[in-house]
């Protein structure tokens, strides 16, 4: 398993984050040392408490950061609620199933009591995602901090998120547009070691796959049959679906092992075996959890350093009792939605 010391060495490469931003924002692991020294402990406490009641929280928090960072950078805009004049990101089709926003709310409430108007919601998401991985048995790392929160959140922009039906070219293009390379693509796909997928996200592989094939032939036959049993052609059970790997609450390299065995869930997972470079990396991570965790830490630091927000945290913008999913609930998005 990757140690914190190794993670610290990786940090230096990515402390300057200027991708997708009109500002040059320097992120630092020591950003809150003087202004809010207990920031990490507060976030970790909120994540631990939530995990005691809901084992799906780690997967939700990790996915939340992906979906935040891939739209306008890591600016916390995924937390914003829709208004009568603007539909926000969280109501875009790919984000309807996002949850555990209350964990961010609880961390923010605790931090406002300790150091009002200091810690950005974007930084809380980044810290919570790290804790989600580590508390699930995965590696820990030093999170660079200093992200600014954004005021803009549009549901239409969630179309930019990489879809579970993407092929390798589409995946590479999506990641490249965010300053992430093919190595990051394979390493970050390993986040699928945590979580659950609803039938709609992989229906294309198990029903009417092609004119002459009902099921994707790359799927292992027995595995495909099991998926079809829980997700029939005209599925009407909203909660139906499948775990993303055999250990959905444990952060490990099972995802890559199952991918090589024909037991991947998404088309985008299978796509990693259609390119020589990505296939080689999948094999490498399937045989070495240490190599996977090392690459994952590096790519998470890189992705979480994509900046976008420009507004400093202001205590007057927060209510004393934040509403569900609203770290930034008191902001009037109707005045600035473009």
TrEMBL record:
Paired cysteines (S-S): 36-115, 69-74, 199-231
Site residues, Transition state stabilizer: 63
EC code: 1.11.1.7
Signal peptide: 1-24
CDD domains: secretory_peroxidase (cd00693)
Binding site for heme b: 192
Residues binding substrate: 162
One example of a Gene Ontology biological process annotation: response to oxidative stress
Protein name as catalogued: Peroxidase
């Amino acid at each position: 398993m990757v140690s914190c010391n190794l993670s610290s060495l990786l940090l230096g490469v990515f402390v300057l984050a200027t991708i997708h931003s009109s500002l040059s924002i320097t992120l630092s692991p020591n950003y809150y040392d003087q202004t809010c020294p207990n920031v990490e402990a507060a976030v970790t406490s909120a994540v631990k408490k939530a995990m005691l009641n809901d084992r799906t929280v780690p997967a939700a928090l990790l996915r939340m950061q992906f979906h935040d960072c891939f739209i306008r950078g890591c600016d916390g805009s995924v937390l914003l609620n829709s208004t009568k004049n603007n539909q926000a990101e969280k109501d875009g089709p790919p984000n309807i199933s996002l949850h555990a926003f209350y964990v961010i709310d609880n961390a923010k409430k605790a931090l406002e009591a300790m150091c009002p108007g200091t810690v950005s919601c974007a930084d809380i998401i980044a810290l919570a995602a790290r804790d989600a991985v580590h508390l699930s048995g995965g590696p820990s790392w030093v999170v660079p901090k200093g992200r600014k929160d954004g005021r803009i959140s549009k549901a239409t922009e969630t179309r930019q998120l990489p879809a579970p039906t993407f092929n390798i070219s589409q995946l590479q293009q999506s990641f490249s547009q965010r300053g992430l390379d093919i190595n990051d693509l394979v390493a970050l796909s390993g986040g699928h070691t945590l979580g659950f997928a609803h039938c709609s996200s992989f229906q294309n592989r198990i029903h009417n796959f092609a004119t002459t094939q009902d099921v994707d032939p790359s799927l292992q036959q027995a595995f495909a049959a099991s998926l079809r049993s829980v997700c029939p052609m005209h599925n009407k059970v909203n909660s139906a679906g499948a775990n993303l790997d055999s250990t959905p609450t444990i952060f490990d390299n099972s995802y890559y092992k199952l991918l090589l065995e024909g037991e991947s869930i998404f088309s985008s997972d299978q796509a990693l075996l259609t390119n020589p470079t990505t296939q080689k990396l999948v094999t490498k991570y399937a045989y070495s959890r240490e190599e996977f965790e090392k690459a994952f830490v590096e790519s998470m630091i890189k992705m979480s350093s994509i900046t976008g927000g420009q507004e400093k945290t202001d205590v007057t913008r927060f209510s004393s009792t934040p509403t569900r999913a609203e770290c930034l609930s008191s902001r009037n998005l109707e005045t600035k939605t473009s």
